[in-house]
Amino acid sequence: MLIAQAPGEQEDEQGRMFVGPSGRVLDELLQAAGLKRSALYLTNLVKCRLPRNRRPRLDEVQACGEHLEREIELVRPRALIPLGYHATRYVLGRAGIPAPSRREFHRACGRLIWTGTLKVLPLPHPALLLRRPELRPEVTAQYRILGTLAVDCRWYPVCPMRRAYEAGMLERRWVELYCWGNWRECRRYQMEERGEPHPDWMLPDGSLEESLRR
Hints:
about 210 residues, 10 helices, alpha/beta, 5-stranded mixed β-sheet, single chain
C-alpha cells in the first residue's frame, strides 16, 4: 500500500491518484522495480486537496486517519509504503515508532522497518525528482526494493532460517525484514548466490547466533 500525502489539483479533479507529472515519474520508478500499478493499492494520508498544496495540519491528518485505518484493515497489505515525510511520520507514529526529523528523513528512505505487525518502507515522493532530477539514481535504487518485497527469497525454502523460525528459535522480525522482505540485503542470500560457505547459525545481518548452532 503506497500512502502519499494528499491529492494534487489534477488528482482532485479526476478522483484518481498520480495522474499528473509525478504520476509519470512513479510509473518510471515502478517499471525499474519490475512492477505495475496493479500490484499496489494507492491512497493518500489526507483525502482532499490542500490549499496551495501546503503541508497538512495535525487536525487534518487526525480527521482523515480513521479512513486510512479502515483502508489498511480492508486491504491487509504486505507492507505500508509511506511517500514523503508527513505520511512516514503518521505510519510510524501509529506503530509507536519515533519518526525521523524532516532533516533526517532522507536517512529513513529505503530502510525497511518491522513494526511488530507490518513492514514499513519509507520512500521519497516521486515529485521529488521533478525538483531534483539529479537524485534519480538514488531514488530509483530505493524504489527497486518494492520489487524485492513482491516475492520471497528464492533460497528461503531450504534456508536454515526457515527451520529456525518454524521451530520457534528465531524472532519473526528476521524473516519479515529479510526472507520475506529486502532479501537482497541478506548476507546469507549474497553468500549463497556467490557459492560461498557460511554457517547455519549465521543470521541475515551476518552476525552469529550460537543458540542456533546444532
